[in-house]
Amino acid sequence: VNAPSIVDRSAPEGVQAWAAQVRDGDVRALARAITAIENQQPQAEALLEQLFPSTGKAFLIGVTGAPGTGKSTLVDRLAGAYRSMDRSVGIIAVDPTSPYTGGAVLGDRIRMQNHSGDAGVFIRSMATRGFLGGLARATADVALLLDAAGKQVVILETVGVGQDEVDIVRLADCTLVLMVPGLGDDVQSMKAGLMEVADIFVLNKAERDGADRLQQQIEAMLELAPGRRGWTTPVVRTTATEGAGVAQLIDTIEQFRMREELAADRRSRMVGHWKQRLRTLLGEHLIDRTVAKAGGEGALEALAGDVAERRVNPYTAVREIAARAGI
Amino acid sequence: VNAPSIVDRSAPEGVQAWAAQVRDGDVRALARAITAIENQQPQAEALLEQLFPSTGKAFLIGVTGAPGTGKSTLVDRLAGAYRSMDRSVGIIAVDPTSPYTGGAVLGDRIRMQNHSGDAGVFIRSMATRGFLGGLARATADVALLLDAAGKQVVILETVGVGQDEVDIVRLADCTLVLMVPGLGDDVQSMKAGLMEVADIFVLNKAERDGADRLQQQIEAMLELAPGRRGWTTPVVRTTATEGAGVAQLIDTIEQFRMREELAADRRSRMVGHWKQRLRTLLGEHLIDRTVAKAGGEGALEALAGDVAERRVNPYTAVREIAARAGI
Question: How many CB pairs under 8 A join A and B?
């Protein structure tokens, strides 16, 4: 069943107008485009195709950390700081710790108040379930949209749990990993995953007891495993609730950005990213065409029934579909 | 780079011997097979193909709930109860709340002690990152392995957060959703997602204050949205640390199982599951063949470079690859 389309795929002039609105930063057009991506509406691809040449300019900052580390507060502070530097900001908040709530929407409203009336900040929360094509992909597409809409800084906020979220963080040009004293985070136990993604450690709630000890632990860990890409991963202390340390954090991000732009790292990272994306898109493109050639959804369902009843194994079934489609 | 293979794909007799060991419930063969699935080693598919006809007999129980609801303790109790009924048990523990720790392995060791020396219980923790093919798929494959190894009951334990975990729970024949009094769970806020997956609500830590109120809230919610598949979703109270209520929970699961086996529900659910799996497997099969036909990884990388530099958009690039491969 097709969902009612805002723009018919056969009417590219509609998509062109929509794309022009997104490029102009029209908030309603942007919100409608995100919904189209979330629901994998057919016109989402046509729209992204239109907008793609306008992308590649935004600087993507990933912000990750366990629940309770103060991510949202820090992101709000960063957004405010970038706004005072007259840079437009987009925020994509991915919070899988509340997948069952309507909290994403409510959260947007509450947070919007800080930046209300400021057309330079666009905030969108992404739910973590119900994405047909995967959360990481939807987030990457929304980041492209915000990029096309002229947002100079796009902040991706995730709780840093699970494969989807790690994939999201890998999108970022610069990734901040938040830690706080006294949350029971054992630095030792965090090594494996966080070392790979952290470009900057943010020691938030730095006024708390145990901040010095945590910083020593992080630095000891960093000595054992030097920062990726030749960058010496720094530890920046903040108290986000009061804005303390945020200016220094912005400076550090800018230092990373400068270094990064000089290096060939970004290009090779983006090539790797697109190689993976092309494979995924290719798979979708081929699956639909192949299933159609091999007898359509009905034939697929019949084969699935054979597999469910163990009359055929799934690998043989797949080769059968490909053979029927002549591939 | 190919990882050293335990069994060469061109040596199906090796895979056959391995499959026979798994069918016999050999713990080392099983552990090696899980590792092969986790790392997507080529022989994993050949092995699963061998084992597939021996699957479809296990009863899959999903156990999900927020951190702190006592899932692991309850799962241990359920495993013990099924063992006392002389049923063999497999446990797959998926815990994305500690993705960066070596805790999975350590946890196994600690939990194994309860069942040590009992070859009837096999416990495996799955990390939540680094899965090339997605966590939900790897978990489904491991469930097939345990099924083929003759485990009559397979328990899938997840923290119930994120898309991957919801997909995992959808695999289960019967899903238990754990809630505890006083954890700050607002029943209202949980409605959307949990109502869909819960076959049985387990009110754990039932000795705590607030248990009656929580039960009333759950029941009020259930009145508004009656259980799926015509089943009246029950609330069972347990104190897993002491084993209280576990016998009643097992009875309730058996009631659900009896009802379920009478209905056509299971078949249609499994057909839906396999339809989705076939699409995913088909995509992988087609991507590799198509990329090879279209000039190989080098050609793909060159196109990814063009996309990264915005010389071509990703959708055009995908059509280009398919066209080059003559599809």
Answer: 218
Report pTM.
0.72
Q: How do B59-64 and A153-158 pair as beta strands?
A: unpaired
Residues from chain B that touch A285, judged by Cβ atoms under 8 A, are: 318-319, 322
Residue among A103, A128, A284 minimizing CB distance to B162: A128
Q: Decide if the complex's ipTM is over 0.90.
A: no
- Report pLDDT digits (tens) over A35-74: 898 888 889 989 999 999 999 899 999 998 877 788 888 9
What band does B135 get if pLDDT is binned at 50, 70 and 90? confident
Q: Kindly identify which residue of chain B lies nearest to residue A197, measuring between CA atoms.
A: B100
Cβ contact A162–B99 (<8 Å): yes
Q: Do the chains contact at A322 and B163, CB–CB below 8 Å?
A: no
Closest B-chain CA to A299: B275
Question: CB–CB of B128 and A189 under 8 A?
Answer: no
